[in-house]
Design brief:
14 strands; six-stranded parallel β-sheet; Rossmann fold; three-stranded antiparallel β-sheet; 10 helices; globular; alpha/beta; 311 residues
């Protein structure tokens, strides 16, 4: 019996997640979206590609949550992007209501599932999902660090003209401007980039990583990144379904780790069939710890705003 993954939201990110899960043969996929015909059409299109792509994963599309029943993993991408004139609080309010409604529907149908959150603002949406699902903290995980680290890795590889496979990058903290890339833990074939690049070039790569999503939005004009975010989510799903126990940077609910309490913050975790099986703590310099605390403060501000909302 194959694994089952539900993807809620059949937009660019969600449909690309579904495509990559199916084409890797990881699981059968249910795509759910409120727009009638959208998930059904995309699922059928992807299913018809199966003979060419040589996989036997089954894909279905639906507008109701019953299709998600019995899922091993549920990836939530649904929500609205931030639009011109919209404040961060506006986005927070709208997407919090969307995510709460989704999780309250899917959690009872798949009580043993692991939730992988993609909807922004990511760290705050993890809080909404944790409360709405009543799942244990290890089964609600935010996708951000894998994406941020992938961007950092790609920029390092480009800068040094080396294979991306040789690069490894370390990113802590929230998703966005407050993220904390750690160059001394970022390597090329095991060599810290601090030994390969001058400080000014490293800082330029760090800044480009922080603004990675905004750079793509500026180029696209009418959309945002979806290929890399989808790949990041699928890497997490792969580690969970195959019980690989990969160490990946993910948004995890911390209860004292790194001195942070009661917040979802990006940290390295071991991902396996139980979800987050371990939060890995590394030694930080005073400067790095201060930057992580600033990042946690930004998440705390969002959560405090959330707590004032009537969802």
């Amino acid at each position: 019996m194959r694994n089952k993954v539900t993807v809620v939201g059949a937009g660019n990110v969600g449909s690309t997640v579904a495509q990559r899960i199916a084409e890797r043969g990881l699981a059968d996929v249910a795509m759910i979206d409120i727009l009638e015909g959208l998930p059904q059409g995309k699922a059928l299109d992807l299913q018809e590609a199966a003979p060419i792509e040589k996989h036997d994963s089954r894909l279905i599309g639906a507008n109701t949550y019953e299709a998600s029943q019995g899922s091993d993993v549920i990836v939530i991408t649904a929500g609205i992007p931030r639009k011109p004139g919209m404040s961060r609080d506006d986005l927070l309010t709208i997407n919090a209501k969307i995510v709460k409604g989704i999780v309250e529907e899917v959690a009872p149908l798949s009580p043993d599932a692991i939730l992988v959150m993609v909807t922004n603002p990511l760290d705050a949406m993890c809080h909404v999902a944790l409360q709405a699902s009543t799942f244990s903290k290890n089964r609600v995980i935010g996708m951000a660090g894998v994406l941020d680290a992938a961007r950092f890795r790609s920029f390092i590889a480009e800068e040094l003209n080396v294979s991306v496979e040789n690069t490894h990058a370390f990113v802590l903290g929230g998703h966005g401007r407050s993220m904390v890339p750690l160059p001394r833990y970022s390597t090329v074939a095991g060599i810290p980039i601090t030994e390969l690049l001058p400080p000014d070039r490293i800082q330029a790569l760090v800044e480009r990583t922080r603004w990675g999503g905004a750079e793509i939005v500026d180029l696209l004009k009418t959309g945002s990144a979806f290929y890399a975010p989808a790949s990041a989510a699928v890497e997490m799903v792969d580690s969970i379904l195959k019980d690989k126990k990969k160490v990946l940077p993910c948004a995890a609910y911390l209860e004292g780790e790194y001195g942070i309490h009661g917040l979802f913050v990006g940290v390295p975790v071991k991902l396996g069939k139980g979800g987050i099986e371990e939060v890995i703590e590394v030694a930080l310099t005073d400067e790095e710890r201060s930057a992580l605390e600033e990042s946690a403060d930004a998440v705390r501000s969002l959560v405090e705003t959330l707590n004032k909302l009537e969802l």
